[in-house]
Amino acid sequence: MSTSLTVRPAAETAYDAVALGEVMLRLDPGDRRVRTARRFDVWEGGGEYNVARGLRRCFGLRGAIVTALADNEIGRLVEDFMLTGGLDTQYVRWVPYDGIGRTVRNGLNFTERGFGVRGAVGVSDRGNTAVSQMRPDDVDWDALFSRGVRWLHTGGIFAALSESTADVAEAAMAAARRHGTIVSYDLNYRPSLWKGIGGEERAREVNRRLAQHVDVMIGNEEDFTASLGFEVEGVDENLTDLDTGAFRAMIETASEAYPNFQVIATTLRGVRSASRNDWGAIAWSRAEGFAEATHRADLEIFDRVGGGDSFASGLAYGLMELDTLQQAVEYGAAHGALAMTTPGDTTMVTLPEVAKLAGGGSARVQR
Ligand SMILES: O=C(O)C(=O)C[C@H](O)[C@H](O)CO
């Protein structure tokens, strides 16, 4: 266990990680475009879910997902993916389907991954979903967390789904902390979601309220600015001439504003094109101070969606199972980098691959 956090020992818990969030069906046109597609690959994805699934599938920890789905064939396909992802689905709330989706439906996410100068394009079709209609008392949070949970992960995507989901997140986070569960939150600012419910002003009000229940706060520079109002001075959106000093200053300000934050972590991604990034990460903890992951210049990317979530799951794994914040941030950055080499939103890589890259290994053929 890292010296940055006191995480409950696995032996006295039912789950290592529980995620609260939406799980959508991702429709992926492969190397073509959505607008001219004739067939799609399907995957599942959701910012919060991807983290628990990564902890299960790559890192071998025990996880559950709390979400809601309309009970139709699409919802059951998402369930099939979640079962393949290895998460316990007993906390999925199944809402009767009305036959045409007038009152309740499941989220669809059409995303093409871009190539070179053509950026990735995402179109989500996720209004009026079962998960957006969740209420705080839909789940008996005290019953769940009294079973013993080491880690809860949720975030700013779930909080932005409707007027009610921020209250659901707050109920879950408060209950988790009452039972000694570490709470992580990825700000994941999505302007398209906040637009219908009060825009950036509401995003800040909601995220500032929820931040008071967070132990481990995660986001990139845009997230910290749009969601919490902390500026990273002097960087442009492509992070050219990256100066990590500006990130350190922002993190110090955030740590003073929220004494409950034990760890703050941000990815450093300079987007050179759809298929190339500069990639790194910086983390801070109250106990250990700053740690920076190895900076990877000009990283090749196959599918960037979910890279930040895989960073979060590698970081969480490190904070639960490894010794130092430096190891945790290296595992996060390595897992994020590797997850972006495969299609879909979720990880397809193994713990030995993450450990090797985090330790400075190369991509030489293994046979
Ligand atoms: O939940 C969303 O908004 C998505 O776009 C799904 C993706 O899996 C997720 O955001 C990746 O971080």
User: What's the count of strands?
Assistant: 14
Residue runs with pLDDT of under 50 for 5 or more positions: none
Relative strand content? 15-25%
* Heterogens: 2-keto-3-deoxygluconate
Work out the helix count.
12
Q: Look at the structure and name the CATH superfamily.
A: Ribokinase
CATH classification, class level: Alpha Beta
Beginning-to-end CA distance, first to last residue:
33 Å
Summed over residues and divided by their number, the pLDDT gives a mean of: 95
The secondary-structure class comes to alpha/beta
Architecture in CATH? 3-Layer(aba) Sandwich
> What's the Cα radius of gyration?
19 Å
- What can be said about the biggest beta sheet? 10 strands, mixed
Protein name: 2-dehydro-3-deoxygluconokinase
Domain Carbohydrate kinase PfkB: 18-348
InterPro entries: Carb_kinase_PfkB-like, PfkB_dom, Ribokinase-like
Keywords: Kinase, Transferase
How would you describe this structure to a colleague?
With 367 residues, the chain is an alpha/beta fold. It has one domain: UDP-N-acetylmuramoyl-L-alanine:D-glutamate ligase, CATH 3.40.1190.20. Helix content is 34%, strand content 23%. Strands 1, 4, 5, 8, 9, 10, 11, 12, 13 and 14 form a ten-stranded mixed sheet that branches. The longest helix has 15 residues, at 307-321. The chain is globular and about 55 Å long. Bound molecules: 2-keto-3-deoxygluconate. This is 2-dehydro-3-deoxygluconokinase. It comes from Promicromonospora citrea. Residues 18-348 form the Carbohydrate kinase PfkB domain. InterPro entries: Carb_kinase_PfkB-like (IPR052700), PfkB_dom (IPR011611), Ribokinase-like (IPR029056). Belongs to the carbohydrate kinase PfkB family.
